[in-house]
Design brief:
Helix content is 27%, strand content 34%. The protein is built from 4 helices and 10 strands; from the N terminus they run H-H-E-E-E-E-E-E-E-E-E-H-E-H. Helix 2 packs across helix 4. It is globular, with a radius of gyration of 19 Å.
Length: 184
């Protein structure tokens, strides 16, 4: 009898693990794929920058939060008082010692990573990315002739995800500027 009870307990734990994993994976349901125009309209601040510093800590609820500090090279939309070209925003999750939490399907931020960041005001006066991972558009030369310049990619953007390609950085900037000027 005790063997059956132990087996039922393990089964119950597995069911709860599946429920928890499903909840975590679908918690981004409010972040369904968005177009560049939608992200640009929702963002109050759009910057190009390089990750300079990552500071992970627990919030009041015990969840990990990472403060991402950027060295900003361009501002495409909005205004922000930046000290020495730096800007800090908050990202849910992070790595603190042996503990790793992630709330989206994106990869962790890395020191030196260059990206376009679509930001909006979050709680407590801190910036957060628009639509979770979709507000981060990695910049690089991956899969492209370097003479064509840098390109930008983000699996969260609907028009990019479906066709599996990236935009040049200039094309992305053009789409952001068009959306901003049209107020789409």
């Amino acid at each position: 009898m005790s063997g059956n009870l132990a087996g039922m307990f393990r089964l119950k734990k597995m069911v709860w693990a599946v429920v928890l994993c499903t909840a975590v994976l679908t918690s981004g349901a409010g972040a369904s794929p968005r177009t560049v125009g939608e992200l640009a309209n929702d963002a109050r601040l759009i910057v190009v920058g390089r990750v300079d510093k990552l500071t992970c800590r627990r919030n009041a609820d015990g969840r990990l939060m990472t403060l991402v500090t950027l060295d900003v090279s361009e501002v495409w939309k909005g205004q922000h008082r930046m000290t020495d070209r730096t800007l800090t925003f908050v990202n849910g999750g992070g790595i603190l010692g042996p503990i790793r939490q992630s709330f989206n399907p994106d990869r962790p931020y890395r020191i030196g990573e260059k990206a376009v960041f679509f930001l909006e005001p979050g709680g407590q006066g801190q910036w957060v990315t628009v639509s979770l991972w979709q507000g981060r558009f990695a910049i690089g030369n991956q899969g492209q002739n370097p003479s064509k310049g840098e390109n930008a990619s983000n699996n969260g953007f609907a028009e990019l995800n479906d066709r599996g390609y990236t935009l040049s950085l200039e094309e992305l900037k053009q789409q952001v500027m068009e959306a901003h000027s049209e107020g789409r």
